[in-house]
């Protein structure tokens, strides 16, 4: 079964999500949300989440799915693992943030 690797931009976003959720709704909610995200990551390889291709204008091959208030961008890595590229809140302008994360 493929593994899941969190890429640098995604790791930074996960930290932001955790801190924001903890500061706004407490430790328990932050833990629940992050745990739910990682459970969703584990479901990718088995098609346990419904993903669609990342729009071409983003300039990166891969897929995206929604988890509660965030969109999770991911791709297949050369070794067959799943690479979590980044996570963006539903209110963010995705193309701009995606380009910011990747210097595109």
Q: Report the helical percentage.
A: 40-55%
Query: What is the mean pLDDT?
Result: 87
Unreliable residue runs: none
For the report, how would you describe the main beta sheet? 5 strands, mixed
Distance from first to last alpha carbon? 32 Å
Shape, per Cα inertia axes: globular
Q: What is the name of the CATH topology? A: YaeB-like fold
Give a structural overview:
By secondary structure, the protein is of the alpha+beta class. The protein has a single domain (4-102), classed as YaeB-like fold (2-Layer Sandwich), CATH 3.30.2310. The chain has helices at 8-25, 27-43, 94-102, and strands spanning 4-6, 52-53, 63-67, 70-76, 82-89. Strands 1-5-4-3-2 form a five-stranded mixed β-sheet, with helices on both faces. Helix 1 runs antiparallel to helix 2 (27-43).
Chart the SSEs and their pairings:
Blueprint: E1 4-6, H1 8-25, H2 27-43, E2 52-53, E3 63-67, E4 70-76, E5 82-89, H3 94-102
Helix pairs in contact: 1-2
Give a summary of the structure in a few sentences.
With 104 residues, this protein is α+β, with helices and mostly antiparallel strands. The protein is built from 3 helices and 5 strands; from the N terminus they run βααββββα. α1 packs antiparallel against α2.
